[in-house]
Write a structure and sequence with these properties.
18% of the residues lie in helices and 9% in strands. It contains 1 helix and 2 strands; from the N terminus they run ββα. Strand 1 and strand 2 form a beta hairpin. It starts with a strand and ends in a 27-residue tail after the last helix.
Length: 66
Amino acid sequence: MAITVACPHCGKPVEWTDTSTWRPFCSKRCRLIDLGDWLDENHRISDPTDAQSEDPPPSDDNATHH
């Protein structure tokens, strides 16, 4: 029995087999639409270095100078 997954673009069921040429997509069209979304930066992988830390580094303005 083959595993069935949903096409990431349209949701159509796709059998996860060697004969499913475009898996996990149901077709070349859905694959190209998804690629275009990545190229247009509609999809992004988050960058943990962009997240602000809970305790920001002290600024020079708050430093006590002797």
